Amino acid sequence: MPGTVAVLIHPCTLLHDPGPGHPESPERLQAVLDALRPPVPGGRELLWVEAPAAEPEALERVHPCDYLDRLAAVADAGGGVLDRDTTMGAMSFTAAVHAAGAAVEASRMALDGVPAFAAIRPPGHHAVARTAMGFCLLNNVVVAARAAIEDRGVQRVLIVDWDVHHGNGTQDLVESDERIRYVSLHQWPLYPGTGRAAERGVGNIFNVPLPPGLTRARYVAALDDAIGRATRDWRPELVLISAGFDAMAGDPLAGFTLEAEDYAAWVRHLATLGAPMAAVLEGGYRADRNAEATTALIEALP
Fold first, then answer.
1. DSSP letter at 248?
2. In tens digits, what is the pLDDT along the chain, a chain of 302 residues?
3. 242 SS3 class
4. Which residues are catalytic?
5. How many helices (DSSP H) and strands (DSSP E) are in the chain?
6. DSSP code of 128?
7. Could you tell me the pTM of the whole model?
8. Are 289 and 248 in contact, with CB atoms under 8 Å apart?
């Protein structure tokens, strides 16, 4: 029988309000949560865990105090526009701190033997150290990776980012850290305009930029190949997935062609590495497609 999967949630992440008509809406997360209510397809037992707020120390390993203070001040003032895509409401900073906390707790649970999924928003992979962008305030997956390294002594973390947009923030934050390898499959050209294959960091960056409209098999094979290159003679002790689902066919912000089973296939491939695994929700702007892909991911987690 399939084992237990932990699902990290917090009600405040549904209260982040980027404004009417914004694609990063609470409905996209609510659809995921609804899809995971019993009975869960595939017979998985889910352990629902209310995520703690990320500790200040964990956040400050990635984001300077003055940046965190600035986000808190915008929220305390009732919200505001940070850039053309990224808006905060009064609850947005609280939501972001709990989203980062969910990612940290998901990685801890994975290291303790329970694969985990952080069902959260706002997403994080575009956030750099001092700048919010692309709907992202805090870089959840990097906060989790740093916590695993500093608090648990993990020395090799693999981040796999299959969101259709390149995780420029994640790359910027880890590209000089040999303990973290970053693999990203993303549409090119597309926002934010980063993620060229030639961008290699200290040999720890593996970008796979591809055009829209290719066959599903082409995208699946390309990411599998990049994972193989990243882990050749380098076995991760923890795998973190930036699980954006905007590469699904029909997503309004991009042009990839993936289906839910493709995410399950990638999870099964990653499971062969034998490392603990946790996934963190990133993009995905059709609620129904998010629900389908999440269910497939949960079923496939080892």
1. B
2. 478 999 999 999 999 999 999 999 999 999 999 999 888 767 789 999 999 999 999 999 999 999 999 999 999 999 999 999 999 999 999 999 999 999 999 999 999 999 999 999 999 999 999 999 999 999 999 999 999 999 999 999 999 999 999 999 999 999 999 999 999 999 999 999 999 999 999 999 999 999 999 999 999 999 999 999 999 999 999 999 999 999 999 999 999 999 999 999 999 999 999 999 999 999 999 999 999 999 999 999 99
3. strand
4. 126
5. 9, 10
6. -
7. 0.98
8. yes
Domains of the chain: 4-300 (3.40.800.20)
List of residues 6+ apart from 230 with CB closer than 8 A: 158, 181, 183, 206
Q: Which two tokens stand for residue 61?
A: 């390993």
Instruction: Tell me the three state secondary structure of residue 258.
Output: strand
Residue 48: phi, psi to the nearest 5?
-80, 125
CB 126, CB 83: distance < 8 Å: no
Owner of token pair 């915008």: 74
Nearest-angstrom CA–CA distance, 12 and 30 = 12
Question: What length does the chain have?
Answer: 302
The residue to which tokens 């926002």 are assigned: 191
Q: In angstroms, rounded to a whole number, what is the distance separating the alpha carbons of residues 94 and 41? A: 32
Q: Per the structure block, which two tokens stand in for 255? A: 């042009």
Cβ atoms 179, 157 nearer than 8 A: yes
Three-state secondary-structure class, residue 32: helix
Of 245, 237, 254, the closest CA to residue 111 belongs to 237
Sequence-ordered strand ranges (E) for 54-156: 79-81, 87-89, 116-118
